[in-house]
Amino acid sequence: MISVLEKFPKISFYARTRGWHFIIAWGHRITGILLVVFVWIHICSYSSPYSPGVHEVKTPGFGSLILSLLQWVLAVPIIFHALNGGRLILYEIYGNRDEQSMLRWMTGVAIIYLAVLGLLMLMGNQSASPFIFWLVMAAAGLILSYGVGVRIWQLGHSIFWKLQRISANFLLVMIPAYILSMHLSPVPIHETGIAIPGMQRIFIQGVYLLLLAGSLYHAGYGIWSLVSDYFSSRQLRMGLALLVTLVMLVFGWVGVTMILII
Question: What is the pLDDT at residue 114?
Answer without folding.
Answer: 94
